[in-house]
Amino acid sequence: MTQTLSLVPARIDTYRQPVVYMAEDCHICRAEGFAAQTRVRIDLGERWIVATLNVVATGGWLKVDQAALSVSAWSALGARPGDRGRFSHPEPAASATRIRAKAYGERLAGRDFAVVVRDTLDNRLSEIELAAFLTACTGDRLDEVETEALTRAMLDAGDRLDWEGRRVLDKHCVGGLPGNRTTPIVVAIVAAAGELIPKTSSRAITSPAGTADTMEVMAPVDLDAAALRKVVEAVGGCVVWGGALNLSPADDHFIRIERPLDLDSTGQLVASVLSKKAAVGSSHVLIDMPVGPTAKVRSRSAADALGARLLAVGRRMGLDVTLHISDGAGPVGRGIGPALEAADVLAVLRRQADAPMDLRSRALDLAGGLLDIASGVHGKGRARAAALLDSGAAEAKFMMICAAQGGFREPEAAPARHEIIAPRAGMLETIDNRIIARIAKLAGAPRQKCAGIRLDSRLGDRVEAGQPLYTIHAATRGELAYARAYAEAHPEVMPIREVTP
């Protein structure tokens, strides 16, 4: 009896998790004892993958001599209609014993982390096994030596960019602050100063926008390594999506599991950030850590602990790391969502009178910090950054970067909008970062680039009853109604404290 089945595309997006669909009365399912959630090896020529099995009931949409592959499985296998794949049980993951050891509190060595990373990239680990590893490493369960070992394992599993000994500047924000889209402004300023700054950024997973989502509103971001190098050599900087590059590729697999579980691990965060910075060839990295009650880093003590680990492991990795602690009390700028954040970025670069001053100030702080690092003289970089911004040099450089990446385009406005108004007069003293981000996501961000939130009132404002607090932007009336219902059920996102006359 043959072990091959005809491969067909399921056209189901399972993100990075390869999934195969087989009929329950398929002869291979019966002979091999395959059942739902079984890990199955599929060979096609020289390529192979390990996928998770989903079983289709008898009489369903799949024929007994077919196996349907999810989008990620189809792509990874390089399958074409009419191909026949060979099915078998995969060998047990070599990292299983390492994961078990870590779960029982044992320390892992560099070779152990390397095996886990390799099995992750080969999809030998089920989501349960990967979740077990990440849970065993969460909190403070990775010490400094283990953090370095995990960072190196993640770095060694992918490609690296080499800039031939030149100084390469970079910045990173640990996140948790809606609208904090400083990166395109910082890259433009630093590149205008004549420095190299090849910035790779992520798309949003659970937030209303990642830097790549916002930049993609204005220019293409899906560049490969060769195209990235060409852009940077031509104009000094770029802002591209890191997912199109093979730089620390295991990180995306880890994030896919960490985000839904809301895992918080100093070691994993440090390994994620520094492995990507080392992979892109950075020599000097400025890390922004917003601290606030609803930000990702919620206290100064947590920031100090994270900062100490970043500095120590960065030093071990040969990276010059500088920390920047910033205010994380509330959102930055006015826009939350790709197009709305892009509009803020352009307003700052174009020196418009209504540009959000908090976004401008934060971008100048970070760009100034990087220019201080480049010059080796502390305290003069911010003034130089402001001069480059105010003269229009940064705007010109940004347009050059967009042109080099494939062409600039203006952000589009959302067709459906609704204002949320203040129920009474008083002082706006807090904004819940997590709830406001949730509303923006329910409106369609980041999938719908024009969707999100535009803040009409800011922290510290005195507002009158009936005054707009924020406006929900959506691509459709249905999405607008969905976000509006949630917003109206959560007035605590912007509580108004009554002020005695």
UniProtKB/TrEMBL annotation:
It catalyses: thymidine + phosphate = 2-deoxy-alpha-D-ribose 1-phosphate + thymine. It comes from the Bacteria. One of its GO terms (biological process) is pyrimidine nucleobase metabolic process. GO terms for molecular function: 1,4-alpha-oligoglucan phosphorylase activity; thymidine phosphorylase activity. The keyword NADP does not apply. Residues 427-494 form the Pyrimidine nucleoside phosphorylase C-terminal domain. Pfam families: Glycos_trans_3N, Glycos_transf_3, PYNP_C. The keyword Transferase applies. PANTHER family: THYMIDINE PHOSPHORYLASE (PTHR10515:SF0). This is Putative thymidine phosphorylase. It comes from Stappia albiluteola.
